UniProtKB/TrEMBL annotation, chains A, B:
Record keywords: Cytoplasm, Glycolysis, Kinase, Magnesium, Metal-binding, Transferase
Pathway entry: Carbohydrate degradation; glycolysis; D-glyceraldehyde 3-phosphate and glycerone phosphate from D-glucose: step 3/4
Annotated ranges, domain Phosphofructokinase: 13-328
Localization of this protein: Cytoplasm
Gene name as annotated: pfp
Name by which UniProt lists this protein: Pyrophosphate--fructose 6-phosphate 1-phosphotransferase
Organism: Azospira restricta
InterPro entries: ATP_PFK (IPR022953), PFKA (IPR050929), Phosphofructokinase_dom (IPR000023), PKF_sf (IPR035966), PPi-PFK (IPR011404)
UniProt cross-references to Pfam families, sorted A to Z: PFK
Binding positions for Mg(2+) per the UniProt entry: N118
GO molecular function terms listed in the Swiss-Prot or TrEMBL record: 6-phosphofructokinase activity; diphosphate-fructose-6-phosphate 1-phosphotransferase activity; metal ion binding
Binding site for substrate: T146, V147, D148, M194, G195, R196, E251, Y301, L302, Q303, R304
Length: 423, 423
């Protein structure tokens, strides 16, 4: 490939829901690229992800100081903007792929780095195919990212470990609160967490509990159809034994017929639809059937942006995968994604592996059934062994005026030279 | 007072909603009491607050090691249990007050320390009056605690500074997330925070924004009646200028007629309406009128239990007030509450002051109107000057297995010697 023999520019984009550590991958990528000026010219970032490439809205990261790029490592969110935009199949929308190649050609881009989840790995794979059929040399590398932890061919996904640490910490803390209040007030605490299809984040809440009487007492997974009677019996038993019950519920909880509980909003005394997510639905069900007072929490974006509480493991892996992407490209690899290979549980050890994008694209990794206890309401020791290292260690960002000091990049655009393209 | 001349035992209870630092006050109190064995015998804690005194369910803290008492300083929630239970007036329910004195007499208790908010200071005052009329010597000292920051005669209330730091940090982090997503997805982020009657916590969210384009862009205070049209115009303007809009809303937001935007219809034991869900009401209003996609978050108990992110100032003040309570009692004071006196804004300086319980009881401190901007949607520089020192500094708890390592006390009961008393 030409890309391997003369300095050409690199394109980098962030895709899908952002995380507390996706910028750590960007940091690893840009810092590594800057160490190879003989091979890589400038790193251009897509403003708002792949849309920035389609619309020729490229950010010239060479205007950012080394110090500011270093600060990306501890800054959550997507520093260049992300997008929810999936390119269609090559057959359906070939014009979009051709536009990408046109933009890359116009800006002398020889490296394509795409930082995202399943959909993004699919896009990266399609771009790599097209570059071959169109005879345009392009090293296409995917970089994994998803709080959902559902990418195959990597032991864990950057972003997940920090969400896991956040939800487990939050559950432990809120659990202590409700335990204090239970004698005369709140007896039920429900926290709704992300993960529509896979219960990895719900499982992580379980790490807060190291004994049967410690919160959370019950977990409601998307993998286990909601069984109302069995659940309510467990809640009642919990309150009788411990005085209260703390529950984590996946946003994707559904019943045996596949209906999401979040779509089953209850009605108030006036017949008005009661607003709220599955957390509130579950909490109100308990109040209506068992009469217990409840509180419920919906951390929403807080859980995936909580860089102040990031897992050190997660930050290190996110950074390492950004660096590995560049190193793979420089080694002449394309159509691949670096991933995490676990070599030992305790003490935890990992190294970088390499997967083919075609094997990763659109494949969703489910949580193994043996990670969920037989009764369906908690995690097993095997699950704990898997999860524990992912939340290990702290990586506290610097603070200023009592708040985390996050970087805002200048994000200066590369001058456009092509015709307008509308997405 | 006899209490000043021979070692008698002390009673300590936690009351009302707990916080990330109420145990730091307990730590300051118990550690100080242990340094004065000539004056103070054992510290007995009420299990579940004042209910523990009424039911003679006392926890003998002398069974806890010095090391475990020290760990209280970094443990959130109420280590001995709290309660929402307000003693009625002396005239209405004299039997309860007499029972308290009976229990104190039976267990040789000469000091009464009550750690709570407005209602609790009222109770402590009534107990101090009764001890005088009944001729039972008792040093009654209140210790302030409330995330609502609405106690008078103290510059700030322990618990508030840590909530303030949590909500400002969370808003900054979630704001970076939604800014990344706004081009193709979520444009509106709403975070609902505590503060029924006073907007202190809502105001604290504003600290995350150091420029007009930084989140949060709009704050909805309980002090400012909700004006729908003006609000929606500001939201639309925000999205047009910055691409997105981040909003913090108080659970106590109401309209010009005093109607809460969301009222779950239940009441707690103090008769206060239990609120929740206004965040979603506001978010759905924006979607219905302006068509923007939203996310909303309800941190609920997470905000007041987030010891992992506590303010160093807050922890120090909570500890100092627990210590001061003992020192005041040993100095022969009773019917008083130690408080925080601010002596300078920048650099921040404070000292312990003393207020009469009768001046504190049932008085609610409102947020000054000059802390809210003229348009009603943000905070002023005067507000920032007040709030900034309260969130300053970190006090990170020790961690174990990637999670905060909080103490669980043994909480061994003192043997009962009186007849059963039902509350």
């Amino acid at each position: 490939m030409n890309a391997a023999h003369r300095p050409t520019n690199a394109f980098y984009a962030q895709s899908g829901g952002v995380t507390a550590v996706i910028n750590a991958s960007a940091c690893g990528l840009i810092e590594t690229a800057r160490r190879h000026p003989d091979r890589i010219g400038k790193v251009f970032a897509g403003r708002n992800g792949i849309i920035g490439a389609l619309t020729e809205d490229l950010i010239d990261t060479s205007h950012e100081s080394d110090a500011d790029i270093a600060r990306l490592r501890h800054t959550p969110g997507g520093a260049f903007g992300s997008c929810r935009y999936k390119l269609k199949g090559l057959d359906q929308h070939r014009v979009q792929y051709e536009r990408l190649i046109e933009v890359f050609r116009a800006h002398d881009i020889g490296y394509f780095f795409y930082n995202g989840g399943n959909d993004s790995m699919d896009t990266a794979w399609k771009v790599s195919q097209l570059s071959e059929t169109m005879g345009y040399p392009l090293a296409c590398i995917g970089i994994p990212k998803t709080v959902d932890n559902d990418l195959p061919h990597t032991d864990s996904c950057p972003g997940f470990g920090s969400v896991a640490k956040y939800v487990a910490t939050s559950m432990r803390e809120a659990g202590l609160d409700v335990a204090s209040m239970a004698a005369t007030s709140t007896k039920i605490f429900v926290m709704e967490v992300m993960g529509r299809h896979a219960g990895w984040i719900t499982a992580a809440c379980g790490l807060a509990s190291e004994a049967a009487d410690e919160p959370p007492h019950l977990l409601l997974f998307p993998e286990i159809p909601f069984a109302e009677a069995a659940f309510l019996a467990r809640v009642e038993d919990c309150v009788k034994r411990f005085g209260y019950c703390a529950i984590a519920v996946s946003e994707g909880l559904h019943d045996a017929d596949g209906r999401f509980l979040s779509d089953m909003g209850t009605r108030d005394a006036f017949g008005h639809a009661q607003l709220g997510g599955v957390g509130q639905v579950v909490a109100q069900l308990i109040r209506d059937r068992l009469g217990y007072k409840y509180h419920w929490a919906l951390p929403d974006y807080l859980q995936r942006s909580a860089r102040h509480l990031a897992s050190k493991t997660d930050v290190e892996q996110a950074y390492a995968l950004g660096r590995a992407a560049v190193e793979l490209a420089l080694a002449g690899r394309h159509g691949v994604m670096p991933g995490i290979v676990r070599t030992a549980d305790a003490p935890y050890a990992w190294e970088i592996g390499v997967a083919e994008l075609k094997d990763v694209a659109n494949v969703e990794r489910k949580m193994p059934r043996e990670f969920i206890s037989a009764d369906g309401f908690h995690i097993t020791d095997r699950c704990r062994a898997y999860l524990a290292p992912l939340i290990a260690g702290e990586d506290v960002p610097p603070s200023r005026n009592g708040l985390p000091d996050y970087v805002r990049l200048k994000n200066i655009a590369v001058p456009r030279c092509l015709e307008v393209f509308t997405v």
